[in-house]
């Protein structure tokens, strides 16, 4: 149902972003990928579901590079119809030991990039009178955990920004919503499991206690499931879902 739509998914070379990109490609959208690392592997994977995707290497901590990425989308694809703000990083440390440069990087990548891509995508969406902005926040946009000050602050702010963009466009065919996943087994979470293993905990125990502390289902959420929810939010059936912070979290925030 997304034939003729152009989708930009930030941070789509890995994890959740790559899963969402595949789902959008399978539904017929033209994809623009972004992110670091195994770019060709990500392009090949998305190409198995649809047309070969475009790619821009913008570092989302830098507004100038974000502007270049949005210009690329405009000149090569005629603009962005579906914007998935997914790129994000994590750092775990208590506030008083939290490195200032990590704080600044997390705020820039996890929060400010959402403002920049959105402000640059909205004029084109308004011209075409259709758009979907889907921000990958987190359960940490709704509740906190210790040692994640920058991440929790940025994700709560993303939920707030989502509501403002939803309201400003409430009388258009442009919707803006946030997804709030619980634990998804991606490199970002594997790093946190590895930290526990490094402190002497057995791998299965590290995984089970990580899930057990927060996620009542005891199961990870998958990128494919988040892809399916993204497709729903892009559908006509979701045209009145506006400014939501939709958790998919194995029961995390129900507690
Ligand atoms: P991941 O590490 O697998 O992927 C992160 C992606 O962002 C990669 O493509 C990476 O290259 C890209 N990226 C990182 N820094 C970037 C930068 N400066 N510029 C451009 N791209 C950059 O992580 P993930 O778990 O798939 O996380 C994706 C999003 O989902 C993040 O916003 C994260 O906060 C959120 N999230 C993850 C979980 C989880 O359990 N994994 C839960 C809730 C929310």
From TrEMBL:
InterPro entries: 3-OHbutyrate_DH, NAD(P)-bd_dom_sf, Sc_DH/Rdtase_CS, SDR, SDR_fam. One of its GO terms (molecular function) is 3-hydroxybutyrate dehydrogenase activity. The keyword Oxidoreductase applies. Pfam families: adh_short (PF00106). It is an enzyme of class 1 (oxidoreductase). It comes from the Bacteria. Gene3D superfamilies: NAD(P)-binding Rossmann-like Domain. Keywords: Oxidoreductase. Its EC number is 1.1.1.30. Belongs to the short-chain dehydrogenases/reductases (SDR) family. This is 3-hydroxybutyrate dehydrogenase. It comes from Phytobacter palmae.
